[in-house]
Amino acid sequence: MKFFRIALVAWLLSLLAPLAVAAGDRISTKFTASDEVEAPSFEVASETAYLVGIIGNPNSYEVAAQFYTARWRWGVVERDSWLQGYNQVYALVMAEPITRGPENHYFGISLGFRYNFAKPGARFVPYVSGGLGLGWLDSHANINGAQGQDFTFNILTAVGVSYKMNDHWKLNAGVLYQHFSNGGQTDPNPSVNLLGPQIGATYVFH
Fold first, then answer.
1. What whole-number distance in Å separates Cα of residue 203 and Cα of residue 46?
2. What percent of the chain has pLDDT over 70?
3. Do 92 and 181 share a structural domain?
4. Claim to verify: residue 124 and residue 142 sit in the same structural domain
5. What SS3 class is residue 27?
6. What digits encode the pLDDT tens for the residues 15-52?
7. How many CA atoms lie within 13 A of 76 on its CB side?
8. Of 26, 46, 88, 133, which has the fewest CB atoms closer than 10 Å, so is most exposed?
9. % of the chain beyond a pLDDT of 90
């Protein structure tokens, strides 16, 4: 009888061993940090830039720009390389008091893409972005170097870095380039090229 009891215990232990290992595996993976890129599905941002004219116009433009942006995730690159991160499409509206220059204000919209070079668990995420749009300003065609009509096109490009404060808030800082002109609809067709620092805050929806 003693032999049979020992055999029964050994048989029961052999049945329970795989379950114990499986349970241990589940516990160990549950608390392991994620190795996936954190890519929010949607976010909104408010950003401010102070831009100055750089080339191609005789007027020394200075612009205090405000941007309100919505971004949607569009593709994630999971492979472990310098390109690891995620892409976004964005739509923004801009309100820009012209603090120095012939015109007084510029209002516009832009659609574009932003790529975030994100590593798993990283708080600092570099980015690049670019977009095209259109807008309106109070043109003064009679002034040399001023815009020839109210309707214009715009180009925006930016590079910078964002910092994740918590699950919902990020701060960002970078450099923004903006170009606007009427696309040759008037002659002459003076354009404006602007460059300057940009800062902002982003709210993330998961």
1. 9
2. 83
3. yes
4. yes
5. helix
6. 444 433 333 333 333 333 457 888 999 999 999 999 99
7. 12
8. 26
9. 65
Pair (19, 109) in one structural domain: no
Residues 179 and 154 placed together within one structural domain of the fold: yes
Same domain, 8 and 102: no
Distance CA 110, CA 200 (A): 17
One DSSP character per residue, the chain reads: -HHHHHHHHHHHHHHHHHHHHHHHHHHHHHTSPP-S----SEEEEEEEEEEEE-SS-SS--EEEEEEEEEEEEEEEE-SSSTT-EEEEEEEEEEEEEEEESS--EEEEEEEEEEEE---TT-SEEEEEEEEEEEEEE---TTSTTS-SSSEEEEEEEEEEEEEE-SSSEEEEEEEEEEEEE-TTSSSS---EEEEEEEEEEEEEE-
